Every structure is written in structure tokens, then in C-alpha cells.
């Protein structure tokens, strides 16, 4: 599946039942004074939740016990770890994180990492588990 098809599929899954449009260029955090991570919910129902997330420094290693996450990099760059593998990520990269898989990111750019995160099923914040040594 090429990148355009993957992105289009991701957007259809995240926006399909809400019939709303969001411009990735204009979505901004409500405040620039957040310490490290800022998440803005764009949509949610029982099947999925979509967030714009900004990271200034890092996201500690964690996993989601009950849902899969798809992350589309909109701005910035970082070193992303999923399981035992680490890769550099940049604008346009799409990462699929299966449920119950350790993952985290360290920002390497001068600007915050801005991503769109689509989590399925709906993310209610109760299945995030952080590694003990983080």
C-alpha cells in the first residue's frame, strides 16, 4: 500500500462517522506553554479516537493493552522505538503500533513533534501502561 493510500485510509477511518474536516496545517495547541506533551482530541466514538499530539521532548516507553494506534507525523522529527526497533521519523511517516506493544519517541528536531494519532477502539485513557524504568 503506497503512502497516499495509507494516509487516505487513515483519514477515512478517523473522520468517516463524524463528517468533519480538519486541516493539519491549522490545528494548533490551545496554549504553547505546555511542558512536554499536549494532546487535542479531534474526534471520538466507540470505534476510534483521533488526536493531534505535540511533543517537545519525549514520550516515555508505554503500551496500550486494548487498542491499536496509528501515528502520522505532521511536523518535526524524532527517534521512535517500537518493540526492540528504533528508527528516525520525519514528516509524512506513518507508524502502526499493535495493541500491547511497547513504544515511545524522543524528539530530535528544533520544533515540537506534531502527530495525528488514531487509536482503535476508542481511547479512554485507562489502558496505558508505562515501563517501570521510565
Question: What does this 3D model show about the protein?
Answer:
The chain contains one helix and ten strands; from the N terminus they run αββββββββββ. With 134 residues, the protein is mainly β. It has a single domain, classed as Jelly Rolls, CATH 2.60.120. The strands form two sheets. Strands 1-2-9-4-7 form a five-stranded antiparallel β-sheet, covered by helices on one side. It is globular.
Write the layout of secondary structure elements.
Blueprint (H helix, E strand, L loop, with lengths): L2 H13 L21 E8 L4 E7 L2 E7 L3 E8 L1 E6 L2 E6 L3 E4 L5 E5 L5 E8 L7 E3 L4
Antiparallel strand pairs: 1-2, 2-9, 3-8, 3-10, 4-7, 4-9, 5-6, 5-8
Notable traits:
10% helix; 5-stranded antiparallel beta sheet; globular; 134 residues
According to CATH, what is the class? Mainly Beta
- Helix share of residues? under 10%
Taking pLDDT < 50 over at least 5 consecutive residues as the criterion, the unreliable ranges are: 12-18
Order of helices and strands: HEEEEEEEEEE
- Decide which structural class fits the backbone: mainly beta
Helix count, per DSSP?
1
What's the shape?
globular
How many beta-strand elements? Answer: 10
Q: What kind of sheet is the major sheet?
A: 5 strands, antiparallel
From the 3D coordinates, which CATH architecture would you assign?
Sandwich
> Radius of gyration, rounded?
14 Å
CATH superfamily: Jelly Rolls
The total tally of domains equals 1
End-to-end gap: 35 Å
Query: Which range does the strand content fall in?
Result: over 45%
User: Which strand order spans the largest sheet, edge to edge or round the barrel?
Assistant: 1-2-9-4-7
CATH fold annotation? Jelly Rolls
Average the pLDDT over all residues and give the rounded result: 87
Amino acid at each position: 500500500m503506497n503512502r497516499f493510500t495509507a494516509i487516505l485510509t487513515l483519514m477515512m477511518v478517523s473522520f468517516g462517522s463524524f463528517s468533519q474536516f480538519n486541516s493539519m496545517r491549522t490545528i494548533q495547541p490551545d496554549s504553547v506553554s505546555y511542558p512536554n506533551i499536549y494532546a487535542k482530541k479531534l474526534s471520538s466514538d466507540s470505534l476510534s479516537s483521533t488526536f493531534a499530539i505535540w511533543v517537545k521532548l519525549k514520550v516515555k516507553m508505554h503500551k496500550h493493552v486494548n487498542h491499536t494506534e496509528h501515528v502520522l507525523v505532521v511536523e518535526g522529527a524524532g527517534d521512535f522505538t517500537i518493540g526492540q526497533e528504533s528508527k528516525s521519523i520525519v514528516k509524512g511517516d506513518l507508524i502502526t503500533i499493535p495493541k500491547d506493544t511497547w513504544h515511545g519517541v524522543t524528539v530530535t528536531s528544533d520544533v515540537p513533534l506534531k502527530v495525528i494519532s488514531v487509536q482503535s477502539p476508542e481511547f479512554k485513557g485507562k489502558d496505558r501502561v508505562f515501563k517501570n524504568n521510565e
